[in-house]
Amino acid sequence: MLHFLLVAVLCFNLPPLLLCQNLLCVFSPILLKEQTIPFVSTECTTDEVCFIADGRYGNHSTLSAKGCMAQKDCSQVRQVEFRGTAFSMSYACCDWPYCNACPGITDTSLSTALTLMTAAWTAGSL
Q1: Closest CA to 61 of 33, 28, 37, 102
Q2: CA-CA distance, 54 to 85, in Å (whole number)?
Q3: Where are the membrane-spanning stretches (predicted)?
């Protein structure tokens, strides 16, 4: 019976995952940094990428958000009002599934890390 259940789950859940061609990202509305919500997945449209937003009030990073946004809007800073206060919201984007799940992982940080690992590996083999 357990085997039948496993086959049924795979037959109904696996094909949509394999056929999905849109980018999947983590979604989180604008929240205070210390607040968390349960994991929510969202599917971007064809012209969107994942983003992580950082909301600042002066020198303090106080807000965060995650989701999908148009590629052309990445790396911008916008003024956002949250609970009656204006914050500067900056956006970092990435374009692989769930790349916005962890804070601080963007195309730039990933390419920097890969470059450093390659350099260390090359130096170690000399």
Answers
A1: 33
A2: 15
A3: none
Domains and CATH numbers, the chain: 20-118 (2.10.60.10)
How many angstroms separate the CA atoms of 50 and 24, rounded?
A: 8
Q: Looking up tokens 């990445």, which residue turns up?
A: 74
The 10 Å CB-count burial string (b at 16+, else e) for 7-20 is eeeeeeeeeeeeee
Put simply, whether the predicted model's pTM sits higher than 0.70 gets the answer: no
Q: Which two tokens stand for residue 92?
A: 């970092």
Beta-strand pair 24-26/41-43: antiparallel
Condensed to tens digits (0 to 9), the pLDDT of residues 88-112 reads: 999 999 999 999 998 655 444 444 4
How many CB atoms sit inside 10 A of residue 70's CB?
13
